[in-house]
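Hey, resending since the last one bounced:
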Amino acid sequence: MRNRITFLMTLAAGLMSTTAIALSPPASPSFHPTPQGMRLELEKAFHTRSPWRLVVTEGVPVKDYGERDAPGALTLCLQRGTGAPCLSGPVTPPLRATTPDDPMAWEPHYLLTARVVYPRGTNAAPLLLLVTGSLNSGDGDQLVYTQLLGYDPSRDEFLRVYCKSTGHNNNQEIRFITDGPLRGSVISAEPQEHSPYGYWIVINTLSHAGAYRQVLRYLSATRYNDHNPLAVIDSEMPNIERRLGLWKLGEPIPTPSAGDSKACIKPTLRHSELWCK
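The structure tokens again:
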């Protein structure tokens, strides 16, 4: 079976990151853990008029759906400075309603990523990337919610410019691209529900208006359980770049650039799907 996308799920250090996010921008703000959670100063990176900060606090520890110990629900908010009201609207993901047929609690319990990213280079406006995870279900699945926020200097406010949720038990992934011809794009891979059991690949890019818009959606050449060890987005990179006019057959094959997929020494195409030796 294709390798699952795994996430580091411990809040001990106050910061989490997925292996698909490899970010090292200059002058990135630092984290300031507090007894209740963490604080991320945003004023310097975003050149805000007010001393904005992201504040994350954790509730009482709970049990997940496998009866394992789990952190309490997280509260995410933005503050204009010490003592200012906690504004949860811009950073609280829209949650699914719990029903008897769907008892999973969708509120965030894991902070997987909280980073300042630079979709158009370090000399352009940054975005705040937040990835949170729900409690784990009995089979280990989890709702993973990805959002990007931009700063509007005319209003001195942060606004959500991208949001999407997915699970991760069937190799789903939402990835912010940090370099290469797709820098600043967000790519998602979600499994098809019926045969041939491929993945819906969706690419969103940042518009001049500062919001993300869909520019491509197609059914992958990659199939579930095809024994390709690469993540779906990595195996589909030649197809993604070809469909966007960024790569043509005969040119060097686009190779993965995230996580352990960097060790793509001998890239090959099998029915337009990337494999690495």
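The longest helix spans residues 237-243.

Sorry for the duplicate.
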